[in-house]
Amino acid sequence: MTADTLLERITDYANRPDPYPLYSELREAGPVVRQADGSYLIGTYHEINALLRDPRISADPRNRLAPAPGLSEEASQLPFLRLDDPTHHRLRTLAMRPFGPPHSPGRIDAMRGQITELTKELIDGLRDRAQVDLVDDFAYPLPVTVICRLLGVPREDEPLFRQWSDTIVASADVKPGDDATERDPAGEQARIEMGRYLVDLAEQRRGHPSDDMLSAFINEPDPAMRLTNEELAETAVLLLIAGHETTVNLITNGVLTLLRHPDQLDRLRRDPGLLPSAVEELLRYEPPVHMRERVPLADIDVAGSTVPKGTSLILVLASGNRDPERFHEPDRFDPARPDNQHLGFGGGIHFCYGAPLARIEAHIALGALIPHLGTTTLAQDPPPYRHNAMLRGPRHLPVQVHQPV
């Protein structure tokens, strides 16, 4: 096998349980590795970190060479995480306003008590069960319920938007040879339907606001700060999906890692003060997002190699997180790791806007689970993984509980 097949092998479902040997191969092949489909892979920490902050690198797939017919800025609204400044900055700022003013307690901090109570309820529901699926029974319902409460989405509609979400996430994966400018028809249809559903919910609150984000968006008093219906649809879809998809992976990967490292699990049980550091290490060691695709707006030099304008540039964040040039013993899980400036939330202007909520949920969820994991073992290792290579995590995590939880 050669280095120009790495993307094909990384995205092969057979390698989903353990892509890290392929990431090591990527780093050894060089900071820049051209693929057979014409894309370029970057797997080294310092190069990824610099490119995430480089204004010559675009998040907008419409900057790819030979854009797909019919996809124009006028014809297709994109979520702000796929846009560049100044449009990205404007929409991100508007989307973040309902969370609360910067550097002050806001809507998310106010939900700590609710998240703690919900976590306790979910764990209480696992008592006296000999086998548990920690995805379906815990890691999925926790962030879904939280984001539903934040947005103002009825929890009973979860089966409806879960189907849309699964379709959209499947369509958003990185695939070799794909034209990233062309949206998957099924994913596009699901995005449209979910957007209409969320805009309709918001419209029901026009003039009758409640304490949720859809109400805040639709009742914004400043005309200059209002989202159009198209912007509201894309922003609300993004918040709903991103508000739970990555957190499910973070919690599930966290539990899986702790059960695979009983010595570190015991260490955290004895020293709960290490938990914030352990969450950061989980974001490095088993991140919920493995790759991000970008497009150079001009020919750029990366570590002595030229990456041409308009090509697909795939930043393999999870590989950068295991780069021995940046992290000491990178393949070792160390909850007390110092200087842990990982790439788990990306970087630059597109740094994950949901990071504060994800950290709070992971701290509370894992903190509540850890006392019980000593009596729990994996029923299947590796567990079955989701098909998505970019948003990597177990689809199910069956465990055996040897004593009642």
Your description of this structure?
The chain has a five-stranded mixed beta sheet, with helices on both faces. The protein is an alpha+beta fold and 405 residues long. The protein is globular. It contains 17 helices and ten strands. Helix content is 44%, strand content 8%. The protein has a single domain, classed as Cytochrome p450 (Orthogonal Bundle). The model is unreliable at 67-76 (pLDDT under 50). α6 packs parallel to α17 (355-373), α13 (245-260) runs parallel beside α17 (355-373) and α15 (275-285) crosses α17 (355-373). A hairpin with a 5-residue loop joins β1 and β2.
The appropriate CATH architecture is Orthogonal Bundle
Distance between the termini: 47 Å
Shape type: globular
Query: What is the CATH topology descriptor?
Result: Cytochrome p450
Number of domains: 1
**Radius of gyration (Å):** 21 Å
Q: Per DSSP, what share of the residues sits in E-state strands of 2 or more residues?
A: 5-15%
Q: Give the strand order, joined by hyphens, for the main sheet.
A: 1-2-8-5-3
> Please, what is the CATH homologous superfamily?
Cytochrome P450
Segments where pLDDT lies below 50 for 5+ residues? Answer: 67-76
